[in-house]
Amino acid sequence: MGRQALAHAAGQAHDIVRRRRGAALEDAILAAAYTELSTVGYRAFSVEGVAARARTGKASIYRRWPTKQELVLDALLEALPAPSECGIDIDLAVVGDSVTTVALLRRIAVTIAGVLNSPAGDAMRAIKCEAFSDPELARTVDERFQAPRRAALVQILQRGVARGEVRPEAATPMIADVLPAVIAHRVILMREPVTEADISAIIDAILIPLVEVR
């Protein structure tokens, strides 16, 4: 192998190592940010604290995440299960005809309650409470966390319309927000765990009357 080829191979190897270091550093920063958020909350969260936990410099963090908000949300996204992993991202093409709209909504509700009742939910609660007084944070939280869930719920309601189980005018984003909003209210504001019995009551007393064919 010639000198140029050796130099090229060495450069490629160096790039691979550098990328691996970069990925490992990003993972360490995200883990440290999640720990910081869970420990001190959103308001006291600081890049300095994250840098100390990750054993890196603030400059390394700011190069990747220009704002505290972006870092916090990425850390939370990394900690929370992906929609496809927790049942929110439902492939309606493979859902059997015997599965009713209510059954699918119950599945979503159980998943949402499970996340909010988990350690990751503690961090989510801190962010949501802060979002009440921070419009930009509220907008970003909605885009990154609530919008995918809302879209999945609208699809379920639209499927219900096609099955004759849901009124056409009820298959809207506003109605789709009702179920998670009630669950979040109980967990975040009232600080009460949501049980499966609670979910059944919410669906039976609130959601079904809202969407059922009249």
Please explain how this structure is put together.
Residues 5-20 have low confidence and may be disordered. The chain has eleven helices and no strands. The radius of gyration is 22 Å and the shape is elongated. The chain has 214 residues and is an all-alpha fold. It has helices at residues 3-44, 47-54, 58-64, 68-79, 83-86, 101-116, 119-131, 135-162, 173-176, 178-189, 196-211. It starts with a helix and ends with a helix. α1 (3-44) crosses α2.
Features:
214 residues; mainly alpha; 11 helices; 0% strand
- Strand runs, count: 0
The shape is: elongated
Biggest pleated sheet? none
Helix content: over 70%
* Overall pLDDT metric: 81
- Total of helices: 11
Question: In brief, what are we looking at here?
Answer:
The chain has 214 residues and is an all-alpha fold. It has helices at 3-44, 47-54, 58-64, 68-79, 83-86, 101-116, 119-131, 135-162, 173-176, 178-189, 196-211.
Blueprint of the fold:
Elements: H1 3-44, H2 47-54, H3 58-64, H4 68-79, H5 83-86, H6 101-116, H7 119-131, H8 135-162, H9 173-176, H10 178-189, H11 196-211
Helix pairs in contact: 1-2, 1-4, 1-7, 6-8, 6-10, 6-11, 7-8, 10-11
